Inverse folding.
């Protein structure tokens, strides 16, 4: 695998917490669907029991739909669906926040590298300035020695 492909793969990966939230949302949604199916089966069995006792099907369904089926279906959809969507929303917010923090962290790392580079350059500048000063002092000493030697020669002559 190329290094560019690895970089793209690493950058496109979702954080583990986000993945866990997606899985939790999926589990909650499956539990909600299961409860919904269970409520529908329970409604059907209740209707069949009343019809077996001799009540008319239309009268039984007319009474049980508003009192048993609709509240149970709404409860399943509202509670479990709401929790699943809330988990999905939190997972998306977490993912976007994680990406923003990664960008900030990369910028911070870049700033640290730049600051280290500046400090190294300042250290090199200090060393270069010391070298220049030492070279000037050495030149001045050489010139001074030459002047002293010429002075001594002129005094001797």
């Amino acid at each position: 695998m190329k290094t560019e492909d690895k970089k793209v793969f690493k950058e496109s990966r979702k954080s583990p917490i986000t993945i866990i939230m997606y899985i939790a949302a999926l589990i909650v949604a499956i539990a909600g669907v299961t409860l919904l199916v269970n409520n529908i089966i329970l409604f059907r069995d209740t209707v069949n029991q009343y019809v077996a006792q001799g009540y008319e099907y239309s009268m039984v369904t007319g009474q049980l739909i508003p009192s048993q089926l609709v509240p149970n279906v709404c409860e399943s959809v509202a509670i479990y669906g709401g929790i699943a969507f809330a988990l999905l929303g939190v997972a998306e917010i977490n993912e976007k926040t994680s990406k923003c923090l990664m960008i900030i962290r990369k910028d911070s790392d870049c700033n640290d590298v730049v600051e280290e580079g500046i400090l190294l350059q300042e250290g090199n500048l200090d060393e270069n300035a010391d070298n220049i000063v030492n070279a000037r002092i050495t030149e001045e000493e050489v010139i001074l020695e030459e002047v002293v030697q010429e002075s001594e020669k002129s005094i001797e002559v």
User: Anything to note?
Assistant: The chain has a mean pLDDT of 79. DSSP finds three helices and no strands in the chain.
